[in-house]
Amino acid sequence: MSEYSFRLAKAEEVNAIWEILQEAIDRRKADGSVQWQDGYPNLQVVAKDIERDAGYVLVDGDRLVGYCALFIDDEPAYDDIQGNWLTDGSFVVFHRVAVSKDYVGKGIAQQLLLHIESFARNRKTPSLRADTNFDNAAMLRIFEKLNYKYCGEVVFRGGSRKAFEKVLH
């Protein structure tokens, strides 16, 4: 797929991952977005992801270039979608997608999503679900490019978010 490798994050990488997330938080703010401007995500969230074996990193050699959290059939907010999911079965949900500032504009977020697809396929999970803020133009473009379908809105941490699903064949 690429020269990048995708693997579980290690506990000793929590600070490097948090640095990548902080850079992404700053970029969201600079873009005028309200997403991630309220103290979430934070270092404790990342540490919990890693503890639950849900934190994954994209690595270029020995350098962390991207991060996400992956969960299988585990997003209670998705039970109350204002709209309809494409499937009723098992799904992989991903959260906290972030790319190192040194790798922005190099297609790393898209690479990360392609690795998430492989993760789901390897586990015979038939679909991917995700949500994003209405003003996250970069992620909305990636969802469109990778053929995610808009399914409606979900309320996540008190705010309405656009929800997407991609059915894997």
Automatic annotation (TrEMBL):
The keyword Cell inner membrane does not apply. Gene3D superfamilies: 3.40.630.30. Residues 4-169 form the N-acetyltransferase domain. The keyword Transferase applies. InterPro entries: Acyl_CoA_acyltransferase (IPR016181), Bact_Acetyltransf (IPR050832), GNAT_dom (IPR000182). Keywords: Acyltransferase, Transferase. GO terms for molecular function: acyltransferase activity, transferring groups other than amino-acyl groups. This is GNAT family N-acetyltransferase. It comes from Sphingobacterium corticibacter. The lineage of its organism: Bacteria, Pseudomonadati, Bacteroidota, Sphingobacteriia, Sphingobacteriales.
